[in-house]
Amino acid sequence: MTLQEAIASVRNIDDSAAAETQRRLDRLTKPQGSLGRLEELAVRYCAMTGERKPAVPRGILYTFAADHGVVDEGVSAYPRDVTAQMVRNFLRGGAGVNVLARHAGIEVRVVDIGVAHDFEVLPGLLDRKLMKSTRNMAREAAMPRDIAERACAIGVDLAAAAAGEGAGLIGTGEMGIGNTTASAAITAVMTGSVADSVTGRGTGIDERARQAKVEVIERALAFHRPDPTDAMDVLAKIGGLEIAGLAGLIVGCAAFRVPVVLDGFIAGAAALIACGLQPRCRQYLIAAHRSVEQGHDVLLKHLQLNPLLDLELRLGEGTGACLGMGLVQASVKILTEMATFGEAGVSERSS
Ligand SMILES: O=C(O)c1ccc[n+]([C@@H]2O[C@H](COP(=O)([O-])O)[C@@H](O)[C@H]2O)c1
Ligand SMILES: Cc1cc2nc[nH]c2cc1C
User: Fold this and answer.
1) Same domain, 116 and 13
2) pTM here?
3) Most-buried pick from 1, 154, 313, 316 (CB within 10 A)?
4) Burial of residue 252 (number of CB atoms within 10 Å: 0-12, 13-18, 19+)
5) Which residues catalyse the reaction (predicted)?
6) How many domains are there within the chain?
7) Of 61, 89, 186, 203, best ligand 1 pocket probe by most atoms within 8 Å of the beta carbon
């Protein structure tokens, strides 16, 4: 399926599956509504997939890795080499995302879509490299438009692969030194916010460095004037390859009716792009958590997404998404494994 075909095939979620699921939840042995947002999650899961009695979904999480030319402007607390080094760490299973994925029984797939390093053949690494890093958005477009489109198409293909293998839940992860700058720039444009209000400290820069980061973003936005009504234009001028891959993954998930669990700020920026390409994508999104990055809350509100968790996370990789995926699986188990009042012989409400 091409990117354009995926965009064209996203349908509205199934309201009748939602209503039926709510009716079943109301017959389970608990005061009505007492499982709160877990019930809402089960309802949304069924509306997205169209299933009435879903199996506990198998979860696959894609962690896209890429580098950013804008790191030359001093916007991160860490050197760009960390991106490639962390890719090796992911493949060895030693990163935060590996631990939380194992905890929730989720498979992590690592995709090199733009790391500035030539890896030897690494077992387990999905080599989809389109460029060795984006270019510096402060001076030129981050990537040509056709590369942005190809990066999105890679995401669609990976969504199709996971859906074809029976994944019922897909998580978003990323690794890219400098990518909170690209994400803040995208958030400013797509939500109509000033850069200062959506720019945070990323990996841990101080307030002075954050202000310099704001200026870099302001300069890039003034120079490129990205068109918020053309998400591909935004992606090409100020985005990142991993963000483009994630945006395509989200569109693909929506096209295949697989619920997608968003991680933090960078995943949220990718969701803004995906919803710019196809607004119905929003219906298939579950926000796992609210990141410490100040722009994340702004974009979640813009997308009208209510995050499940607020754990002050700011690691990325897909760590928060793994925790959110575990909650989605728990909500499906509640729906399918809990006894009804009738089955258990428990008295129903008296007034
Ligand atoms: O997910 C988040 O909300 C998040 C917030 C801050 C930082 N990160 C991670 O940190 C890296 C980007 O930070 P920076 O400072 O290099 O732009 C990148 O690898 C992200 O995965 C992730
Ligand atoms: C060590 C390290 C791990 C990361 N994982 C995601 N972003 C990261 C940034 C750093 C610096």
Assistant:
1) no
2) 0.99
3) 316
4) buried
5) 317
6) 2
7) 203
